[in-house]
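User: Show me an example of a complex going from sequences to C-alpha cells.

Assistant: Sure. Here are the input components:
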Amino acid sequence: MENFNFYSPTYFEFGKDKENNAGKLVKRFGGSKVLIHYGGGSVVRSGLLDRVKTSLNKEKISFVELGGVMPNPRSGLVYEGIDLCRKENVDFILAVGGGSSIDSAKAIAIGVPYEGDFWDFYQGKRIDKALPVATVLTIAAAGSEASLSSVITHENGMVKRGTGSDKIRPVFSILNPALTQTLPPYQTACGATDMFAHVLERYFTNTRNVEITDRLCEGIMLTILSETPKAIANPDDYDARANIMWAGMVAHNDICGVGREQDWGTHQLEHELSALYDVAHGAGLAVMFPAWLKYNQKHDVMRYAQFATRVMGCQMNFENPEITAREGITRFETFLKSIGMPVRFNELGAKKDDIPSLISMLKLNGRTVGSFVKLNEKDIEAIYKLAADN
Amino acid sequence: MENFNFYSPTYFEFGKDKENNAGKLVKRFGGSKVLIHYGGGSVVRSGLLDRVKTSLNKEKISFVELGGVMPNPRSGLVYEGIDLCRKENVDFILAVGGGSSIDSAKAIAIGVPYEGDFWDFYQGKRIDKALPVATVLTIAAAGSEASLSSVITHENGMVKRGTGSDKIRPVFSILNPALTQTLPPYQTACGATDMFAHVLERYFTNTRNVEITDRLCEGIMLTILSETPKAIANPDDYDARANIMWAGMVAHNDICGVGREQDWGTHQLEHELSALYDVAHGAGLAVMFPAWLKYNQKHDVMRYAQFATRVMGCQMNFENPEITAREGITRFETFLKSIGMPVRFNELGAKKDDIPSLISMLKLNGRTVGSFVKLNEKDIEAIYKLAADN
C-alpha cells in the first residue's frame, strides 16, 4: 500500500426534507451573505429553491441568486458569478443542483478572492483561498458534493479542464434522495455510470495488496449494479435512490481510492468527447470505459478476472482467466446497455472522423494519459476507434 | 434507508514515517502548547516518543508529557491530566498510542474547559466544548482515531462508561502501519476482533434496503478475514498491517453504519466483562459475539444467511437457510479461534458464577439492551450462559 493523506471534512445531512435545514447550516458554517447558484428551471418549478430561500429567511441570512448553469458548466457564468459576489459582498456560495452547479459554484468560490483570472487555477495554479461552498444536491452522480474537484469548460475554444483543492471541498452537503425521484431514466443512468466510472478509475491500478480499498470499490460497484435498475424501473423507489445517492458520494470522496495509484485516463478521453459534442459526461463515459477496458485487458488479466468475478458475478475460469476477464467487460457493457446508456460513438452522435480532432484537443505534446497503462497517442487513437466501431 | 447525518472531518496522514509530521500538523491545526499523552514504555523504547518530540521541537511547539495510560483507561489519570493541562496552559492534546491512550486523551480534552467533574459527560451530560485532540496511532483496533467516542473506567466502583461528541473527533490522526509491526499476535488478534465487532454492531439491523452500507460492511469484514492471518503469521507484513489499520478506521468512523438502526448490545455486555476481569476488550468481544449471534439467529435468518454467504464464504442452502445461518456463526467462531482468540468464559478467566454480578453491573432497571433484538434481563442471562458454556 502506498502512503496517502485522506481528508473528507464535509458535514452531511442525508434524508427526507433535509433541505429545510439549509439556513441553519449556513449559519453554523459562518455564512452571512449567500450566493444561491443553480441551473435550469427544475429547482424553481419543484419548489426546492423556495424551500431553501425560506430556510435562509428563517435564519435572517440574506442572499442573491444566479441561475442558468448548463451541463458541462461554462466559464461565462463563472465570471458573472464572481462579479456578482464581489458587488454584493457575498461570503458563502450555496450550490443547489447537480455536479454542474456545484462545479460552477466551486469556480466562483476560488475566483472571488483572487485578483487574476479564475481560469489560472484550471491551468495548474495552486488554490490557496476560496469562499466556503456548500451544496443542496439534486442529482446523484458526480460526487462533487464531497470532492475537492471542479471541471469547467472555457468558452474560448471549448476547452474542458479540471482543478482540485481541499479549499473547495463543500463545508456541508444536503442530500435528499427524494429530490432525485423526478430525474428521468436517462439522467439517472448517466449519473450511475459516472459514479461507477469514478470507482473504476481507482480500481484498475498497478498497486498491489490494497485489499481494503479493493473491497470498498467492489462494494460500491455492486450497489450501483443492484440499485440502478430499480430506480429506472420505478423512479419513486426512495431506497434505491438513497443507495445510489450515497454511493455517488463514497465513489468520489476517495475513501475507495486511498493507498493506490489511480488512473483517470478514461476521464481525460471522455472530457474531450463531451467538450466537442456537449453530451452528458456519464453517457460519454459509458462509451469510453468499455473501450478502455478492452484495449488494456492484457496488461493485468488477473485484475480483470477479479473485477469479473467479484463485481460482475462471473464464474472464475481457472484454466483460462482471459475468458473470465473478457466476460467481465461484456457483462459491464451489457449492464450499461440495459440501463439505456450508449456504448458506441454513433449512439452518442460522435463521429469516427473526429478522432484526430479529439486527440489534438488533448494537447498531448508527447505526454501520456493514465497510469494503469500509460497511453500514448497511438494507444489513445486505438481506444477511440474501439469506442467508434459498431 | 433512515435519515442520517455523517461527519468525519479528521485529517489523516497514513504511511511510513508519517509520525515525523506531527509537529507540522499540530501547528496547522492551531496547537501551541501540547500535552503528549501515552501509555506504557513501548512508545518510549521504540523511539516513537522521541521522534514525535523532535518533530514538535522542530516547529518550536512546547509540550508536557503524561504517560501511564492502562488498557481500559481509568479516571484517575484523566483527573491528573486535566490538572496538568490547566497548570501548564495546554491548548492541544496529542495521544500517542492505541485506543486507550486516545480515549483517555479525549476525556482530558473535555475535562479541561469544564468546571465540574469530567465524569458527568460519561453519565449523559452533553459535550459542548473540548480542547482539540489528535493522535499518533500505534495499535489498529478501536477506531478511536476517527470516532466521536471515548470509554473510561471510573475507579470508584470500576464502572465502565462511554461518551461521544463531534467535539472530540481527532482533528488529525497519523497512522503508520509499520508502528504496529511490533504488536504481538494476541494483541493483533484482539484489535482485529474489535474492528470486526464494530462492523457487526452495524450490520445486524432491522433497517431494510441499505445495500450501500451492507456492502461497505461486508468489504471491511472480508478485509479483516483475509489480512489478519497474514499479520499473525508474519508480523512484519507491512501491507497486511496497513490494510488492517485502515480497516479499523473505516469500521468505526460510521461510513459503514449510516442510514440504519445500529445495535451495540454486545459492546454493552462486553464492557461489564472487561470491567470485572480487566481483560482486553477485543478478547471479551470474541467471547460475547458468537454467543450473541447464536442467541438471536431466529430473529432474522436471511440476514444471518447473507452474512454467512457474502462474508464467511458459505454456500447458500436455499432449501434450509437456517443451516447457512448457523454455518456462518460456526465459521466466524472458527476464525476467531484460528487467530488465537478466546471464545468462552473459561479461556478468558471469567466465571459462570459471576453472571449475576455482570447483570447487576449493567444497572438495567427494566431497560433493554441493543436494538436488533431488544434484550431483557432473561435474554442477557442466556447470552452470558452461552458464552460461559463449553
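The lines above are the inputs; the final block is the predicted structure for all two components together. The two ends of chain B are 40 Å apart (CA to CA).
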